[in-house]
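My main concern about presentation is that the manuscript never shows what a single data entry looks like. Each protein is reduced to its one-letter sequence and a matching series of backbone shape codes. For the editor and my fellow referees, an illustration may be useful. For illustration, here is how one protein appears when written out as sequence plus structure tokens:
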Amino acid sequence: MLTIGEFSKLCKVSSKTLRYYDSIDLIKPAWINKENEYRYYSIDQLEKIYLINKLKEYQFPLIEILNILNKNDDNYLKACIIEKQEYIRKQIERQNDILKQMQKDINIIESRNKFINICEDIKINIINTEPISILSIRRFIKEGEEGELFNELIPLIEGFKLHVYDKPISIYHNKEYVENSLVDMEMGVPVEETDNKYIRTLEGSLCIYTKYVGSYQRAQFVYNTLYKWKEEQNYEVIAPSYQKYIKGASDTDNPDEYITEIYIPVRKKYKIKNL
């Protein structure tokens, strides 16, 4: 048997943390001396604490580690690690995108252009859109998971044998941005059919419209420009804006070549006459 201090040294986990693990049933001492409350661990428990350490290194929260240990199933453990691996891979891709954008901003500063790009190159129009039928799924998702939501549409399209005639559309229903919260997202595709519980009508309206080329990170600056123009032209927003993905990740590996259309449903503000 090993004292808690000896066990702590071998597994490189503090005695305080081991006591906490005991309190949440993550790993308990093999024996506790009732006379002095000294805790003892067995050599066999080193394998378990090493697994706990490894899963913590893989960024698993303790509640998930406890669940994995309780399952005691190698196939389940493997599936959990694969899922976490994919999550971390996506995080790395996102961080790489941020690094690329930071370098672009550095280049802008060095060329003495505006740090916050106002997108002076885009053309803004007012158009009237027609009502369209869209097959759509609406759900609260994490930012950046739009592609996964779109993938859920594919079996519906194939299962119902629907005829898609235009590019995918995403609609953000959030009324405001809340940090670290889920996004109320609707992803859809225009279809010819109308008789289906997953199909709804996207109403036509007067819209501020533009088309821009570049990564999705540029969208924020494009929206800034559109809303500035909206105020200057005395329009008000009447429905959630939406985006149409003309050219995206399935068409090119270069985000700078993405092509996206933005539609903002609006109407003219009423002017109050002086009495």
